[in-house]
Amino acid sequence: MTNRKIFIYYPLKRGGFKPQYFGKADFIHKMNISLKEAREANYWLKILIATEKELEQRLLLLLKE
Q1: What is the rounded distance in angstroms from the CA atom of residue 42 to the CA atom of residue 62?
Q2: How far apart are alpha carbons 3 and 39 in whole angstroms?
Q3: pLDDT in tens, 13-50
Q4: Cα torsion for 32, 36, 41, 47, to the nearest 10°?
């Protein structure tokens, strides 16, 4: 198996984009962190929906995203 590099463009301060190169293991690690963050956000949205009935409709829209 070849060692392919994955690149992701990060925005620069002046509006351009700078490529950042990552190996496959780094990319998988970053995706796992993102998945963990998404699960945590989902958890907190469910708690808010259960406790804040006046905001329930707005929060349900966020939860569907």
Answers
A1: 9
A2: 30
A3: 555 655 666 777 888 888 899 999 999 998 998 898 88
A4: 160
pTM: 0.58
15: left (phi over 0), alpha (psi -120 to 50) or beta: left
Hey, what are 17's tokens?
A: 């984009």
26 Cβ contact list (under 8 Å, min separation 6): 6
Dist CA 11 CA 20 (whole Å): 10
| Contact assessment for residue 46 and residue 63, using Cβ atoms and an 8 Å cutoff | yes
